[in-house]
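User: I'm new to structure prediction. If I give you an amino acid sequence, what do you actually give back? Let's try with this one:
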Amino acid sequence: MRILYVHSTLQPPPTDLQTDRFHLLSAELEGDVLQPIWFQTPAEVEAMFGPGSYPVYTVGRFRYHWFLGSPHRGVRQRLATFRFYLGKGVELYRERKFDCIVAYSHMTTGLLAGAIKLLTGAKLIIEIVTSPEHVYISHSAKPTLRERAMKLYSDVCLHLSMFLADRAHFLYPNQTGAYRLLRKIRNSVFHEFVPVAAIQRDEEREKRERYILLVGAPWYLKGADLLVKAFLEVAAEFPDVKLRIMGFYPDGAELKAMTGGSERIEILGPRPHPEALKMIAGSTVLAAPSRCEGLSRVLLEGMAAGVPLIGADLGGIPVLVRHEENGLLVPPEDAGALADALRRMLRDPELRSRMGDAGYTRARALMDEKAYIREFAAMIRLTVEGEPVARVAPQ
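Assistant: Good question. You get back a string of structure tokens that encode the predicted 3D arrangement of the chain. For your 395 residues, that looks like this:
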């Protein structure tokens, strides 16, 4: 079957084909990817992906169609991106019909994918990549007027894109359950793509420095302040343990002020993905006390590296963090419970080992690349061909 994938992220895909999901999906599907990218010239694209990779880059049976942009997108560039989605989507359909459109996110990308559906007649799948009832209003302790307006816009987009869609891709069951009109949306539930097989386990991490790690941004949404508070509560009991917080934080000064000047708390900037994976694999505990979360890729990467997890009991986190199996769940917004979980993990190396092993096994058995390809292809087939009709045995 042939699909059109409408992407919203500006991050370029990996150059390693074994970690490019569309290259791997070529075993089951074919199609085109509309991909905005943060490079601003064709030469930058070709420097990364090779000569002739602009304006179209082919991996397996998929073609990336680039739209050059900037991380700091203004109104003019956003409108140009929208024209690219609509114009290129219809052009590709006329060139060769696709069976299904898949849109990453229910926001404007989902609405534009819905417009392409109306113009072409193809089926439509919307991927819900966050916890929609918490999005935007979880970015700060006191949501601003703009954040509240964006939450309203998100809810409007969610309803419109779901009404246009033939199916939704949920990261966890009942992902739109907070919305009465959306509780019966047809959906397929499976994890996001993570190249599990490419993630190495650090067998020596317990013999080196010990540190708790949080990866992600913005810091308030990811609960970094809760983790700092919890760490400061237990720090005196574990003088050899550090806390590291990694990500891009435009409000990093406020976060740093919360540390009280502790030399054992390191606020790190963003790192290239291979370096971030090494940091994850080397961590003693990987924490995600988030206030809003779909299905954290970082936690799945931690599982694949055999690292024990601590996560907030919300959104899709409990799908990955099985309490008492591969990690510990704590109530959202509860720094005291988070401190207790850290204390328990840091005191008990056998517990860490058991939980790390359980996550490692589960990630490779149920959430690796093969599982993703199987589930994604099944979702496309269900959308295009329809649900199988149950046959009633003759009496």
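You can read the tokens as a compact description of the fold. Here is one thing that stands out. DSSP finds 13 helices and 14 strands in the chain.
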